[in-house]
Design a protein that fits this description.
The chain is mainly alpha-helical and 150 residues long. It has 2 domains: 2-84, no CATH class; 98-146, no CATH class. It is 67% helix and 7% strand. The chain is built from 6 helices and 2 strands; from the N terminus they run H-E-E-H-H-H-H-H. It has a two-stranded antiparallel sheet. The longest helix has 31 residues, at 2-32. The protein is elongated and about 75 Å long.
Amino acid sequence: MRLVCSTKGLTQNLRKNGWDKLLKNVTSFCEKHDIDGPNFGPSYIARQGCPCHQKYHITAEHYLRVEKFFVTIDKQLQKLNCRINDLAMKLLILRSALDPKDAYKAFNIDKICTLVDKYYPMDFNEQEKINLNFQHQHFIIDACYSRGNK
């Protein structure tokens, strides 16, 4: 879950702050390999709709930054957001409270109770919901005891 969240954050940061670094890297690469680098001086003529419609004169840099760089990143973010929406993220984060890794250190009774209340309300009666906290306390003691941490 942290990887998904950090990937989204890094991608959004790339969109916000990555253009200048990319441009610097491309320019550096071109100079290093004796390649003619990008020329952003001339204007780029963008057409909207059919050719008979109005033309927009913009710089080549603007076209590449806005129409290519931003659009590509936005499509990636959209795919990521469509596949893992906020509800799925919340469910996966709550589910991480059940991870048995590292002797169940991720167990979080508050997340488990939220998981039960929001996603499985019909699977637990009120008494079972109340007992979750007590069962969790017993589980912690049992887990520590079985690991030799008496």
